[in-house]
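Fig. S4 source data, part A: sequence.
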Amino acid sequence: MNPGKPEMNRPMHLALIINNSVSPHSIGAWRLPASYRGFDFTRPRYWQQIARTLERGCFDLLFFSDSSNLHDNYQDSADSAIRYAAQFPRHDPMPLVPICSGVTAHLGIAVTVSTAYSHPFALARHFATLDHLTEGRVGWNIVASGGRAEAENYGRDEVMGHDERYEYADEFVEVCRKLWGSWEPGAVLMNRETGEYADPARVHRIEHAGLYFHCRGPLNVVASPQGYPLLIQAGASPRGMDFAVKHAEVQFAARGSVDGMKRYRAELNEALARAGRHPRDLKVLWGINVIVDTTESGARTKHAELSAAVTDAGALALMSGHFNYDLSQLPADRPIHALETDGIQGMVNMVTQDFGDEVTLLEAARRYGIGVGVMTVMGTPSQVADRLEALYEIGQGDGFMLMTQALPGSVNDLVDLLVPELQRRGRLRTRYDTDTLRGHFFG
């Protein structure tokens, strides 16, 4: 038996990927006819509605992608990103964690935070506090940012090279893990008679002295319900994959074709074997753009509306930003081939390897403008469930990271149309049986 292949009928894990912006992953989603009717993404009620809906659908996770940059690579200008809302504006998702967890009891909430623009002590403190406030339902998506525009926002003239960013991130996570472990079980005494709150013998300095960081510790936050946040990563370059198999418990994987999924899963299994880990030690969620409706024609209409909302300049600005490369330098009517950039190499590979040899740059950008180029599955609940089951077996993963279109209506579509069909097939839980985010994935 292939150790990476799911057992038949094993339930899927489901997450929703979004960011705190007007058009999270599809250019122009904000202007769809059904978007933001009665809602404003800058207000708590919108996010509370999404969180409650996902919990009603027994989702594992609400996942916030994030970055502090403005996509200004395309035509050496930020104009297209600003004009067409190419992941701009993008508000801070961290304050949404208690807002969403406060109206739910089981849904996990993960936030993307870069190792490049924080310090291990500050970040470990933030996440330990959030783990308390969510009662053990917080996750950290670890990224090693490489964008020039983001670096400039933090006053840096240069960006670390690709592999060095991961060396830096390795040590960053190491320090965080030490800090989260600096409180032993039983350290809190809270003895009213003696006045002793904590046992000093069970709270330790970490005395970390490394290449990039020096930190004495201990963390000044009591040990949290999970001990530390669920660790998530999406590195797809060889060095990024090595980082993921070393640190991550869940991986977000994005590919644009079935062959790409197969190829990536084989590479990941090899990397896990080198690290001495079993394929089931790292849960893989495949990014999928699901468009579901009560009828097949209704789903196709939604897809057509989403496609029509994509502006070419906005899509090229988004892809240029992710690639960290000015795509206006390439002919728009010719196929796009292999690129070596300092951008998100996994996304570069997805486009250049999965989209096909004859896809022109403009065609690739239009596809990328819908759900950043991940595969789109559309149809009735039964048709979508059939396809997800097939991809579940082909990709040998553990579930899916689903994207949105009209907001927040497409979240309702997932929960009210697709979820009951998956539950009927035994592919999705009908109730939560664990209390923490890590428990959802590892029981």
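Fig. S4 source data, part B ends here. The chain has 15 helices and 13 strands.
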